[in-house]
Amino acid sequence: MLIPAGLLMMLILFGYVLTGQISFFFNQQRIGKNGKVFTLWKFRTLSTDTNKTLQQRKFFWGTILRASNLDELPQLWNVLRGEMSWVGPRPLPVDYATLFSAEQNKRHEVLPGITGLAQVSGKNNLSWNEKFKCDVEYVNRCSLWLDLTILFKTFLWALSFKQDTSLNEEKFTG
Fold it and tell me: Which of 48-57, 63-72, 73-82, 123-132 has the highest average model confidence (pLDDT)?
């Protein structure tokens, strides 16, 4: 799987060059299993001009990658390093670490995933409480069958090119 993923990533990098976007990658510190902090990698989907709003920072190639979820491909590096899994609760930024309730913190009992139950249950259309319920449900029901089901649903979701609403998402405040 690494060879096709590597070829796809090369095509994506070529797309950046064609659109004039030089900064290919985005990285951010995220919370992993047992609260361990790691650097998450993604393809950049917003320009680096932080003086603009999120909506103003959008660019054509980034919008395509975000809609297809291909911006997540560099996280395969995190999987290879053992920091993430294919399936699990999505890792959240470190500034959220002190905001979790004891129940919500259960999400950190497993490796975070590139995709998860919350993503295939509504993704950014869910409230934070609904996402955390999905995350805890995943931890409680974790199995190969559940992972395969989530991967299949993720594949269907990615092919649907549903409108990305993540830029409109409210920040988690606890």
Answer: 73-82
